[in-house]
Amino acid sequence: MAATIIDGKALAVRLKENVRAEAVALPRKPGLAVVLVGDDPASRVYVNGKRRDCEECGFLSEEHALPADTTQAELLNLVKQLNGRGDIDGILVQLPLPKGLNEKEVLLAIDPAKDVDCFHPFNVGRLAIGEPVFQPCTPGGVMEMLREYHIDPAGKRCVVLGRSNIVGKPMGMLLLHANGTVVTCHSKTPDMAQLAASADILVSAVGKTGLVTGDMVKEGAVVIDVAMNRNGLGKLCGDVCYEEAAAKASYITPVPGGVGPMTRGMLMKNTLTAAKLHQGG
Asked: Is the CA virtual torsion 265, 270, 273, 278 positive or negative?
């Protein structure tokens, strides 16, 4: 079986085109403020990408680059100012923060109506009961990909590898809301390989190169590789041994070009949603 490649890059382009078309109809441009503390190279790459996405969608993009020695009080004061800004619909504090800063306190300080990452407990709670305002960007992007390729989780066994608050847990929630039968595996799961091999839809979000081998993929399964790793040669890759999995899967996401672009696309969609709420659209 030759797996169909789920083209997240192409889908993200269409998603952003739709977002831009809707944004034009609003009284003002949607506004996204990104806060970057310190000089982490990976974080800088992500922030630059988000700025380009905003430009493509016709959004106001505002970056606040703060030095690594920024205090907790200074950071919280900036978040407070952004909460009160009428031209800013979404606030994103780039993680991880430098040591000494309390991430939880900062995320709690963001107005839930501007929490376009969907990290605030209010929004996580709405997600848990099936009434989300925003969808977490990466899991939400995965669900968009499944819809685009007419893959319905209803009645299917969905196995999620990883239980992070950013991907694993909300991914399980979204699949459950779509009527999938969900199993979440983690570092203490003794039979993870066996459970993975039983999945109709397998989502891996662990961050370990070569974690998912071909014998962990059921014939005809849908394989979603969320991870972004570097192998021993420095090449970007995911958790999944791609060639082995693609020989058995019906659909598979590549790394790069799969989930990553959709994560950024969903951030734009969430910012548009926030702008509509604030502008009565």
From this structure: negative
Indicate if 117 belongs to the active site.
yes
Based on the residue annotation, tell me whether 276 is a catalytic residue of this protein: no
The answer to whether the beta carbons of residues 193 and 218 sit under 8 Å apart is no
Residue-wise pLDDT for 39-61, tens only, equals: 888 888 888 999 999 999 999 99
Q: How far is Cα 276 from Cα 215, in angstroms, rounded to an integer?
A: 46
Considering 16, 50, 218, 269, which one is annotated as catalytic? Answer: 50
Please tell me the predicted confidence (pLDDT) of residue 1. 63
Q: Which of 53, 115, 117, 200 is catalytic?
A: 117
Q: Which residues have C-beta within 8 Å of that of residue 68, sequence separation ≥ 6?
A: 37, 38, 39, 98
If you search the block for the tokens 């790069």, which residue do you land on?
A: 256
114 is catalytic: no
Q: What percent of the chain has pLDDT over 90?
A: 92
Strand-pair partners of 92: 34
pLDDT for the residue numbered 281: 60
Catalytic residue among 89, 94, 135, 169: 94
Q: What strands, in cross-sheet order, belong to the sheet with 201-204?
A: 4-5, 251-252, 222-225, 201-204, 157-161, 181-185
